[in-house]
Amino acid sequence: MSFESHIHQALTRRAFFRRGSISLGSMALASLLGPKILGAKEPTGIPGALSAFHHPPKAKRVIYLFQSGAPSHLDLFDYKPKLREMSGLDLPESVRMGQRITGMTSGQKNLFCVGSAFDFRKHGKCGMELSDALPHLGKVADEIALLKAVHTDPINHDPAVTYLFSGHQQPGRPTLGAWASYGLGSENSNLPAFIVLLSGRGGQSLQSRYWGSGFLPSSHQGVQFRGVGDPVLFFSNPPGLSEKTRRAMLDDVQSLNRFQLDRVGDPEIATRIEQYEMAFRMQTSVPELMDLSKESAETLELYGAKPGEASFANNCLLARRLVERGVRFVKLIHRDWDHHGGLPDGIRTQAKLTDQPSSALIQDLKQRGLLDDTLVVWGGEFGRTSYCQGELRKESFGRDHHPRCYSLWLAGGGIKGGVTYGETDELGYNIVDGGVHIHDLHATILHCLGVDHERLTYRFLGRDFRLTDIAGKVVPQILA
Fold this sequence. Notes:
- The protein is of the alpha/beta class.
- The protein folds into two domains: 1-32 and 235-308, no CATH class; 58-95 and 126-228 and 309-480, Alkaline Phosphatase, subunit A (3-Layer(aba) Sandwich).
- The chain has 14 helices and 17 strands.
- It has helices at residues 3-10, 13-18, 20-30, 73-76, 81-85, 93-96, 157-166, 176-184, 243-264, 267-290, 297-303, 312-324, 345-367, 438-448; strands at residues 61-67, 120-123, 128-131, 144-151, 194-199, 223-225, 329-334, 374-379, 383-393, 396-402, 406-412, 419-421, 423-424, 431-433, 436-437, 458-460, 463-465.
- Strands 1, 4, 5, 6, 7, 8, 11, 12 and 15 form a nine-stranded mixed β-sheet that branches. It has a two-stranded antiparallel sheet with strand order 2-3.
- Helix 3 (20-30) crosses helix 9.
């Protein structure tokens, strides 16, 4: 049936009565969308599904510094002198205990232990032990909580990243940022609640579902901003198209969308309506946001940022600017941490790109009074093996995937600074105490946001789903 026939059918008296209940439902739905649908004034934010917090929140927003590819905890956070002593010797079977390893090393005749090439020193009043590869992070040691016994289930990158952000290895579920957007909404109606920034040139491929909304309304998916050119593809008006003409064209499109929404009541049409309006508002607010040249020379130097470049340093500074404007969840993804070879130089290269900006972000948020209610998280999808992948040479070796234990740190809203929690064995292979599963991490992040992870749910296919599935517990040892 043609679209014209649909319109004619929709105008009949019989069709009016048939769709009456749908119309009432879509009116209620539309009232939750953009202000222009009902002729209201611009709001100061976008409400979430929760009518109230489950408990008083300590954090209003999250900046997640995801290190794609899995940094080696053994070379950055978890110093193991015994591993150095055993370099060149086979990993004892009593340590491995028959645990699975990847196909990249399962065929090796030997699994030679290899200690870190970096020295470790104590930092801050808390005496946190950190690698010399991270000299800048040591400046904020008293602000961070270091988890040294994080563990996950998948052993390969894609399922591990999917698990890290959605709580499940199979694609299709909402990611952490989407859950935050759905539950809490945004404090700024001119920007998405969930924004993603990318840096790094190689490493693992990135899938848009890593910041997807799954079965939640697509308005909650992450919006990727670019560091160079238009922040969002096709963001600028084409040459010769004025803002007035753009508005008129958008109004016509929205009229058709509202007609179809009233007719069928599809929530995704409502999402499309609001996203068109959001995009129009962003054309005014985003150019100023992305212009780092407005920052002081001291701030640019603190981060190591250079306006006009696409870098992790620039993205950290942009993250601060985004949370200042009320964005609920900012996700930075930096690639190139997948070191199956080329160590220790590979660690030095990536640490040089990420250490200073990560530390600067903490310092900058604190001096602006934003750290108390902004939660910052840093880490990868799993850890790295205590044994060498490939040939063991003094100046070049590799580490394979290791989901059994790894390190990750948090700082800011709701987190106790200067804390080290969890312990691994003397070779950094198994957890001895204080294990934190990915579901526990999710539960703790939501707790800091004032949300009970067991009560933030969404009904889909007859079941109430949640981020932590049927598991997860808050980690009280790191809470302020």
